[in-house]
Each structure stands twice: as C-alpha cells, then as structure tokens.
Amino acid sequence: MSISRAAVQELVAPVSEDMERVNEILRGQLAEESAAVRDMTDHVGRFHGKQLRGALVLLSGEATGNATDEHAAVAAIVEMIHLATLVHDDILDGAEVRRRVACVNERWDNQVAVLLGDFLYARAFALSTELSSRLCSSLLSETTRRLCVGEIEQSNHRYDFELEQSAYERISGAKTASLYAAGCELGARYPGGNEEVGAALAAFGWNLGLAFQIVDDCLDVVGSTDVVGKTLGQDVEDGKVTLPVLVTYERADARLRASIRDVYTSPDIDRRAERLREVCDLGPGVEFAMGRARTLVDEAKSQLAGLPETPARTSMESIAEFVLTRNW
Amino acid sequence: MSISRAAVQELVAPVSEDMERVNEILRGQLAEESAAVRDMTDHVGRFHGKQLRGALVLLSGEATGNATDEHAAVAAIVEMIHLATLVHDDILDGAEVRRRVACVNERWDNQVAVLLGDFLYARAFALSTELSSRLCSSLLSETTRRLCVGEIEQSNHRYDFELEQSAYERISGAKTASLYAAGCELGARYPGGNEEVGAALAAFGWNLGLAFQIVDDCLDVVGSTDVVGKTLGQDVEDGKVTLPVLVTYERADARLRASIRDVYTSPDIDRRAERLREVCDLGPGVEFAMGRARTLVDEAKSQLAGLPETPARTSMESIAEFVLTRNW
Description:
Largest interface: A-B, 49 and 49 residues
Number of strands of chain A: 0
Helix content of chain A: over 70%
Oligomer: homodimer
Mean pLDDT of chain A: 89
Number of domains of chain A: 1
Radius of gyration of chain A: 20 Å
CATH architecture of chain A: Orthogonal Bundle
Structural class of chain A: mainly alpha
Order of helices and strands of chain A: HHHHHHHHHHHHHHHHH
Shape of chain A: globular
C-alpha cells in the first residue's frame, strides 16, 4: 500500500467499517451477467482511488448525527457517478487519439469507454431509485447535469487567457466541487429535512472540492510525475488555462503573454508543459492559487463550527487540511 | 417536409397535439443558461427524428385508457434518453477518427459529444425524479443499463460470424428494443399498477423495436443512401455482423465464408460494404431477416388484441406495419 493510501485510510478512520460496506455495494453493482461488461467493470473496480467523496457522505452523516442505514448506498452512488466521470474523461479527441494512442484508452476503444461510463451512470441512477427517499435521485441527477455543464464550459474556454478568476471558479466548481457539495449535503440531510445543516455541509463540500481542484491544477503545472503518479502537464496540452496560469498570464508583460500563448498552441504538444515552465516563472501564480485554496479550506472548516466535536468532524477538518498538502 | 416525415405524422395523428407538448417540454429541458451548452442543444434539438418512441408512450396510454397529464413528460424523457444514445453513438474510435474526420463529429470533438450525451441523460433522469411516481425513474434507469450492456456486447461480438441468431436478437433487443418496450410499458402503466396490460404493451414494444432494428440492419447492407438519407454500409465498416450477413455466412461454403471474412477485415475500409455486395448475394439473407421482422411485427400486433378498437390502437398497428415498409 502506498503512503498516500495509508494516509487517506487514517483520515477516514471514523467510517472505515462503513466504507467496507460501500465497497461491497459497489462490487455488487459492478457485477453484471455479461462477461464482456464484467471484464470492464473488474478493471474499473480496481481504480479504487481515494474514495474521498464516498467517505465524506458517511462522515457528514456521522458529524451531523444523521447517519442512516442507507448512507452506505448513497456513498456508493456518489462514487459510481465519480467513476463514470473518470471513465468519460478518458475519451480522447481526434487530435489526442493521434498523439496518445497507447495512453489511457489502450485497453478498449473510445466507444466502449463511452458505454462503460453510461453503464456506471445508469447503475448509479437505478440504485438511487431503489432508496426510500427521492432526495438522492433528484439531488444527484441535478448535480450530474451541473457537472456536465461545467465540463462543457471548460472545454469551451480552452485557450481563453482572459478568463476571469470568478468564471474559472464557477466552472471548476461545477465540474468538481458540485459532487463534493452534493455528497456532503446528502450525508447531512438524507432522507430529507435538516435543510439548514444540509446547506452548511454543502458549503463545506463546495469549498473543499474547489480547493481540491485548484491544488490539482497547480500539481498539473508544477508537480512531479514520480510523486503524483499520473501524467502531468495534461491541462497545458489540452489548452486548459487554469488558475496558476491565468494569474501568471495576467501579471506578464505583452511579450511574455505572447510566449505563453505560443506555448499553448505549439505543434510540439508533448513538450508544451515543459516549455511553459521554461518560458515563465510559474511560482508566483502557483503561490497565489495555493493561497486561494488555503482560504477555501478555511471557509470549508468554518462551516463545521456549529457541529459537536466528534471524531467525524475532526476527520473532515483533517481531510480539508490534507487537500492542501497532498502531492497525489 | 419529406414524404417519410409526413407519413410518420399521419401515423401518430391520434397523439399529434400531445406530441407538441412533448416537444415543448423537450425545448424547455434543452434550454440551458450556459451559451456553450445551448449552442449544442440547439443543434441536437433539430435532430427531431421520427420521435416514434415518444409517440408510442402516448399511444400506449391512449390505447389502454391510461393516459395521464404526466404522459407527455414520460414521452419527453424517453426521447431524451434516445437522443443521448444517438449522440454517444457518434463518438468515434481511434481508427474511425482517422478515416471519418469530417463525418458525424465535425462540429465538436469527441469529448464534447460525450459530455453532451451525459448532459442529456442527466436531464432525463432529473426530470423523471420530478414526476409523481417513481416508476418512470426506476424503469428507465434500468432500461438505460440494459441498453449499454447491449451496445457493449455488440461491440464485443464484432467480426463474430459464429454468433447465433438468438444471441444476435438478445443483443439487438437490449440495444434497441428495450427502450421501445419500456416506453410502451410506461404508457400503459404509468404511474403504477396495471401490470398485466403493461406486460402486453412491453411485449408489443419489444417485438416492434427488434423488427425495427432488423430492418435497419437490412437497409444498412442493401439500402440506397439516397433513399435512406444516411450513410450506409457502416455496420460492415465497423465489423458488425448483423442478421442478413449471419444468414448469408451460415449458408455459404468454406470459400465464400473466407471471402466474406476477408471483406470484413479488408484495409480498404470505405469499400468494405460495396465489396461485400460484390462477393456474395445478400438477397436470401435479407429475405430471411425481413421474414423474421414480419413475424415479430405480427407478434407485436397480437399483443394489442385485448385492447378496445380505438384510433390509438389502429395507429400502433399501422406503426408496426410501417416498420417493415420504411425505407428511411
């Protein structure tokens, strides 16, 4: 087990037993009679990941004294939706297919990855319709819509160096923070009522999720592949102008701005990220972005102020802090 | 308006007013604050298509005396799920990207097409959670899962000339007939109860949908592009061995079988369909497949026998017949 995995397990200790139930539900949902489908779900089933979203559903339930027998299913549904978005994120564009053939999609082609993601969404929605309350179906289908809108807008703003920070945060929030917010809200409210506490926990999730995304964006431009363990520099390759780059660009003079734009559209796509680090000092932009993430984490933690001091609440505060220091 | 469009409108005449409400709901669902999203949904909104699935929800409601105020929303949800599958069907594989660059996905790249389909699914599920009964959410999320499994299995059986007819029908049924079946069942049962009539109407939809798919598969190998109005020969290009080809192959001698396999894997992909028609006489295979479609249509119609004679029932019988004679 890697260090980061062990660290995450310690962070979610108050709900570790329930997380086993979540994973049992997930295994059951991914089991499918069709051998062709099973072969694929077996594979994605191993993409355990950090499962922070699912754990936060349970922790929000514990921290607000609202845990129910159905919380594990809600957490599993949130994790399945997240898994579906991951599978669909791996769909390659025409241009990317040509340059990244042996990368993410080597096991199956695009079409099958699309179908597998659809299958995971459908499973998630089907499971949510079996729960006693409709709050989970309605909140998560609405969240999925928001999530797609965020991703579409992000795609639409590729190569947009004039993007305002507020627009960047709105889009990144929709793309990433909305599922954290919905998971925490469901943890605090499911099966219903409790709207005020739900709103506070949704705000916790939103701020935490947005901080998570900003840290992700910083790691993508200045992280080390060895440490982070995934291909970095992808945002630059894909033309995504994230907060650290937006700030660097905003503060640059006309000549440097032109160089940055040139790097983003350089035909030598594989070297774009490296060249970006060569043409400009990303340090101050990353520092600004990490400062913003710090503020968001503080804001997230302040939302828990009204809750009793429990191991679950402490765990949520630690997760928020961990988002800032993570290097994976 | 094309002749086929006028013909379809006449077929669905008993519910034409309600179909306007369905389209109003669809327009509302596709409207989205984000300009980037709206630009895309405007575009798919014009892909009206035949809207047979939606019309059959309404007709099943009328024919069984079960029409409610919510049937138009159910029909809109069924159409949105269908639209999502169409958008995702257009996602190209790596190999296809290279040879069909200017085809289906010329307006947006693969990634955005994935997100748009996801958006449509999410919208459909979100709308279904707003209905008074959960029958629609639960039946349609389960149907969406089946549909994905069918598509995945189909992809898994590419180039499989040993596929049994029963397996072909199971897969084509899951892929295409399941949504017709669910729509007709919902029309007859929504918001609940009425299970026996629901089962009969589901069987109507299943048989009709499977016949529809078989006719589609025949048109793909022997139709004329001018008449059908879409690119044909795609199944052969994609390695899909459909019923008319399976039968042709089964009846062929060893030499012809080898030729057929060669055509399917020929590097000159654009000419595969044409070459298939050159190396073998597809006539008897198509005739067999159309005979099977005829049987399915009769089976579909027999499911309506217990219903009172109404314009809606007559319309459903005519739609079933039309499936056999359509050339679009």
